[in-house]
User: Fold these one by one.
Assistant:
Number 1:
Amino acid sequence: TETKSSAASDVYKRQDQTAALQAFSGGDYNYRLEFSAERWHTAYDFPAAKDGRVTLLDTAHGRAQGMRGFAFNTRRDIFADPRVREALIHAFDFEWVNRNYLYGQYNRIDSFFGNSAMAASGLPEGRELEILERFRDRLPPTIFTQPNTLPTTDGSGNIRRNLREAGRILEAAGWVVRDGKRVEAASGRPLAFEILLRSATDERIALSFAENLSRLGVDAAVRTVDSPQYTARTDTYDFDMVIHRWSVSLSPGAEQTYYWGSESADINGTRNYPSIKDPVVDALAAMIADAVDREALEAATRALDRVLLAGHYVVPLYFTDVDHIAYWGDLGYADHTPLYGHISTVDAWWSNE
């Protein structure tokens, strides 16, 4: 399911959306789902939208949101230390990106199972805590004592406080600044890597991240390649960092082993881009696949979520819990919004004409 849905999404995103929107504004088709916050706020000002022939609908949904973020490839030595990964997470300024690029319409992703009851929150308790207790000696103590939180800013672009904390963590991990460059104290090798992209729409997000990293003395180059080259490189894990989204449903299962399992880390073409090899993660993913009731499923999923977050394998990006729908004519749909949103039931819409 993840592979098919991602492939469909990638095909959609690669289309010329400017031409598609022009066709819609001219009435060539009568239902459109808009994925771009920028287009939604700037491009739907054509005559039919102004005079009411086209309706613009914002509707909330309850679809689980998988993790989307900059994935560290821990096969690379520079990312092997979780402290380095934790430090670099401080350099991403979501609030500034949301204000300047996303029209304030997005939420920060803080879970691998966001927008659902399976997302870890607060401190572990109940059945989730019972599960985690089995692995206490192999988990960071903070999992039991501190809720997972992401660095925040005021959105002004001034992130000196976050960068100071990042620098402190990097120095504790053995990475110091020499001649303005972040280098490993013992060897002198620079902390430098490439962010590999296949979509030009992600470039400005990656470049803003790279700019903040440069203030830490970290050299992050952004490179966008065509889809075949991107696929060839990611299938063989020939990258330092990529942006990826791991799709999830409200009933996760065996795909979690495919995403995060130790065995999948060494098999080309899986989605274990960070190369997670953790027996605890393996055990929790197996619990999800073997869960016999909803309570067991949610507890195991929250436990896995908490362990993955504690590993700092991804710089989390953002998501929206609102669908943007534009349509021509007098269409009708159920007053009650389905859990998966109106886009999941478009075949149940009707024409009042």
Number 2:
Amino acid sequence: MILAIIFLLTDLFICGITYMVYGGKPVYSDGMILGVHIRREVQEESELVEFLEGYRKQVKRIYAGVTVLGVAICGLCFWYSSIFMIAWCIWFVAYLAGALGVLYLNHRKLYDLKIQNGWGFTEDASTTMRVVDTRTIMKSGRMALPLWYHIIPLAILVIPFVSVDFRDYLGTFSPNSQGWILFITSATVGIVFLWIAWIFKRIPNRVYSENSDLNYRINYIEKRSWSICFLGANICNTIAWLYLVRRITKNRWIYNIDIWIYIGIISLSVIVAIAMLMWIKKQKNILQKEDETPLYMDDDYYWRNGWYANPEDARLFVQDRFNSMNYTTNLGRSAGRYLVGGICAGVLVLLIWMCVIFLRMDFTPIRMVREDEEIRITSGYTNTFFETDDMQSVALLEDGMPKDQYNRTNGSDDGKQLLGKFEGKKLGECRMYVWLEYTPVIQIKTKEYTVFINSKDANETKQWYDELKE
């Protein structure tokens, strides 16, 4: 159930955000429509209006199709997780192909229409205009919030370590326990927001007009707004961590509802970022519509296929044509092609690896073997080895797992099977090899952790128990 909900929300979020950023209604912005520079006065041309109407219909069909399919395959979570994961990976690749394909193909069609009808700003479509507004550049350092503001929420993350109860909780469990993992995650997220804020602060100001005041106002809106957004995200991250700390010190445990609230607080920053993006685009459009002296850089030739490819440009990363928040790679350089190829290959390998892992978890049987004084437990995910001298007790639990709160630290919990490393509120560190719908369950207490294991065959479980008792 949890897996289905997580992927359902993820699929809806991916499709919704991508549609808003790349698949929404194409509007005239920064002298472009759909990433192609076109003169403002040709917006009402019948051929252009007809093309954009066809594009909107095509985008709606594709996004509606992939969204419905993404929601439907989440139902496979109630069957085999591995089958669902394979279907989801295929869906994800098809989704990327559809989203990027419709964008790039229509971008190229519009570029060809522009050349055919002479809708550009210059006769040479490969012309690049580089304009510098020195007044705006001189003021760029004062546009974004100071980076040291981020140090305050980052420093607050470590304040809970002053509490004896909090330190005692973390010391009770291993270094890879959920408490430590969440602290490391919170610190990493905070540093990442600081790093992103630093990148955006260093982005050169763009020149939109011969009017220097207009350039300053647009760049100020962008940099100031995003710097506030990133600082707010860092504050949300700190608040989420402090909430967990309060729950830890009060209950000496982290429940699943606490994790969901933690994720929800951090997700507020994503919602704010989306709202900020829409507001910035609206303000830019308002300012640019009032401008009577616009300046444009018509380098569409290097973007004609939808991606940037300019072998004469020394830059490896350039601002994305379709979303000014993003940066894309210059595929005209060998380093750019190798980088993109490596990332695509890495993602493909990761998806295949995930599918293999889930297949092994679902279809590799759990085995327990005793050889002399060593006990070996193997599965499709994790293995456990310990000496018989390390065993403190062995029990056969006819009613299944003992009642406790179990948190997964490195394993799988799909509602049918517990597999891997867990922590119990009462039992501490655990190794799980348990089919939840089957009984009995063997409980093995060792010096370091507690092991739970069973088989779908009750007779095999009892046979393992007898071997352990010898």
Number 3:
Amino acid sequence: MVLRVLGLTAEKTYGVTTGASNTPDFHRRMNDGSFKLGDEPVTYADGSRMVQGARPGALKPSGSSAGKCDLKRIGHFLYAFFDQYKFTEGEDEGDPNVHEFWGGEETLLHSLHGWATFDEFEKVLCGLLLDSLKLEVSSDFMTQSEEWIYKDETSNMINQSTYTVREVEGAVPLMFYDIGLELGDGDVELGIQTQFSFEGKNNHNQDATIGIGSRKPQRQASAQAREITMSLTSYLVRETVQWIKAIEYGETNRNGPSECKILTLPLLVTIATCENPDEVLTMFFPNSTVAVEYSLSESEEIETTFNLTALGTGEAELYSDEDTEDDEPETVRTDCYCRLITTQPDIEAAFTS
């Protein structure tokens, strides 16, 4: 029997285990996973050809995990990746709730408490920070992979037959046909789309958390530049050519490169399953640069790949459960805005200042 799952819950305070929840909100089965202290020993030779001794090095805990993506559990990962979160409860009992996530300028991100199992033992991870998040889909399941850094860990032996795996009722793994893509204002003809990926990086500065007096991280790592890239792949069709030219030449209706202009476009990703039609995730990138790649090989169909980099120069409208006919909707300036409509409850805030 194998027991390879990752459990997560939000932390009240970064890396503090006293009074922390001792059970995860859910488990996600891992196809790949590794969590290591990164404590490489520091050796010395003192003029000898042989190593004369070693001392423990700095602890730089980091990990990776991967599995299938679903709309019931993705909220915790979006919560950890983005610095902004807003929750709106459904009007009536049983109605879906609205979770909103978007990128802002905060450098201290939400932290999580984690439980990673490796068949015979469990690692309890505190101060988990999501350094990168990647979503990929082509011809079958959407996969989700993460890179983490964290503060500290403990480990326990487990009994596989009695270990409680917290499943999420109604969680449906996403497939390629659950994904809808709109480039531009829905006016960019992409042809048949064969691949989509999203990758976000927070570039945490873990080195700056370790100093004189302790091997362990002494404070929460700060997130640096946020990098968000997307790619779309399709087969070349005649209607796509005008957009290839616009992307390469910097503006529409040109037959050669512009002197200084660059084309930017919005991208809207909509994800929903027929099993749970009331649950929807929309990912909106209001302004992105676009580069295009294409090449031919013999008589095969030509594949075209659009590579996008999100810019923080666009705006997105926040959800409101009130009548806003006479009021301007609240907007935020961001590189990416995600709205998740699901029956899952509020994700408890990590910081209680």
Number 4:
Amino acid sequence: IPANAMPYQTALVYTYDCGDFGRNLEDCLAQADYRGFAARRAESAKRGKLRGIGMSSTVASTNVGLIERAELRFDPTGTLTIAMGTQDHGQGHATAFRQIIADKLGIAPERVRYQHGDTDQVAAGTGTFGSRSMVAGGTALLAAADKIIAKGKALAAHALEADEHDVVFERGKFVVAGTDNAIDIHAVAERSFAPKSLPQGMEPGLFESATFDGGQRTFPNGCHVVEVEIDQDTGAVAIVRYNAVEDVGHMINPLLVAGQLHGGIAQGVGQALMENIVYDAAGQLVSGSFMDYAMPRADNFCDFRLGENEVPATTNPLGVKGAGEAGT
């Protein structure tokens, strides 16, 4: 499907909003030196190894459209707390959500607390699965931040003795357009707890929340090219080259995306080559712990060479697509 055919109605129920599948393939073949494979295969044969190459072009449907919620709460010192309904169990949500807020509100990440996974602290949330957290949670977070800015403008206008329509928000400050008259968001948050500093009728405090309906699915896609060697005497399989080019939309944090891909690749390789549940003749589970079960480890892999083809999604304001399952 060429990029200029997007959005593309598939024969199934899905409509791909964007993507450049052909470029994924071209870039990955070049990155993997596909043309040089014959020479590498001949070299392997000299060492008694069989060498094979495989490729996979993939597209996934992620984010199933369930609600997600974000809460933003400033305290009287101007420190911000984020409370999210998606669970961070290693993906790096705390980092990525802080980056979104740092970019949107101009707040240093170290002044942002992050809460998740505790129903005493988080009012609602659907959770982390289906590569949905950044699409659904990130969009809810942006909506809550917009509400913070809207209330902050009214507070700032009162503090700066200006008309609210003349106040603009930029890089963490509320500024009277065309002047140097400004107040930063932390000072506005602190003033919000002083009733005498508020416009008449305004409720004290700077707290906002937003609940997102989940929105539409996203379609991360990519191409992987892998080479393996098989020892002709023992049958042992070694992964010797692994290249991938992925489109997960706009990347909030490329290092976290790479980590997601690494973990997904490792899990997929484990399923394909190593992992197996074993029962004995009496039905007793033999592979009941990681002492006996073939969990993949670092020395089962070569280096992963990753490339990106960033085509922002058109179905959410962050332009992100799910990344958690791409590697698998």
